[in-house]
Amino acid sequence: MLDGDEVIGFVGLGRMGQAIAARLLEANRELIVWNRSAQACDTLVEGGAEMADTLGELVERADLVLLCLGDAAAVEDVVFGEDGVAAFGSDDQMLVDLSSIDPAQTCRFARELGQLCGMAWVDAPVAGDVQAAEEGRLLVLAGGQEDDIERVRPLLECVARRVTRMGDTGAGQVAKLCHQMLAGAAALALAETIAFAERSGIDAERLPEALADGYADSLTLQVFGPRMAVRQFEPVIARLGTLAQDIDTGVTAARAAGAAVPFTALAAQLLRQHALRTPPDEDLATLV
């Protein structure tokens, strides 16, 4: 188990990565950061983090490497690219991938990293938005060896209200896809419901209040229902592009597992249609 004195290397400082890294600094963790766009490190350095000049330097100095990247291609490049994690890692280190990527790719990456340098891999995708990260309320869905997950649990609990081991390597990614499949279907159904309510002449803004505590109630209804009803799309809580990417990954993973997912496939199709007229950085509420 980590005792709090370890050096944590953090790679990938998008909106979610920034929020998670800042939360770790608030927990007095020693943090080294690296990002392809160096200016993304500035705010964290002001907050007490140290910026590595190269990815290799970060890996050499870190006891634990955390990744928070946009897709599997980025993870593969950071881990196996020239001067990447695999080139500098060792068997007394661990990689924790907070990114949301395909389970099969996760298993392959973990196997190859172990063969190349002996480094253990934990997939720990997070569920929740940036505000949840800032407040330490994320859900962490972890896959990997039980001892490895228990070792990093105290660190992950700095940013999460719950850390759940779902099984061996790749299981965390499967669980995250389950989350996104449910969330995507709920968001699309909510958009239809709000539009139907409006066209039928009732006050759609009152639906979340009226349906609270019933079987139809959900966090999706309570958060996005009012935003859809009044067309409030700022600030962005959940990116359309992120959900669409994860839903597509879910369909692919389900096909590989031999699972039928007709609702998820329809959700993927509808999200792609929406993307033809709405930029991927827009909020999920724009589905209305």
Describe how the helices and strands are arranged:
Layout: E1 7-11, H1 15-26, E2 30-34, H2 42-46, E3 50-51, H3 55-61, E4 64-67, H4 72-80, H5 85-88, E5 94-97, H6 103-117, E6 120-123, E7 126-127, H7 130-134, E8 138-143, H8 146-156, E9 160-167, H9 171-199, H10 207-211, H11 219-230, H12 240-257, H13 262-275
Helix pairs in contact: 4-6, 9-11, 9-12, 9-13, 12-13
Structure description:
The chain is an alpha/beta fold and 288 residues long. It has 13 helices and nine strands. The strands form two sheets. It has a six-stranded parallel sheet with strand order 3-2-1-4-5-6, sandwiched between helices. It has a three-stranded mixed sheet with strand order 7-8-9. The longest helix is centred in the middle third of the chain and has 29 residues. 44% of the residues are buried. The mean pLDDT is 95.
The best one-word shape is globular
Residue windows where pLDDT falls under 50 for at least 5 positions: none
Helical segment tally?
13
Strand order of the largest sheet: 3-2-1-4-5-6
What is the H/E string?
Answer: EHEHEHEHHEHEEHEHEHHHHH
The biggest beta sheet reads: 6 strands, parallel
Which range does the strand content fall in?
5-15%
Look at the structure and give the mean pLDDT: 95
What is the radius of gyration? 20 Å
Please give the alpha-carbon distance between the first and last residues.
46 Å
Helix content: 40-55%
Question: What structural class should be given to the helix and strand makeup?
Answer: alpha/beta
Q: How many β-strand stretches?
A: 9
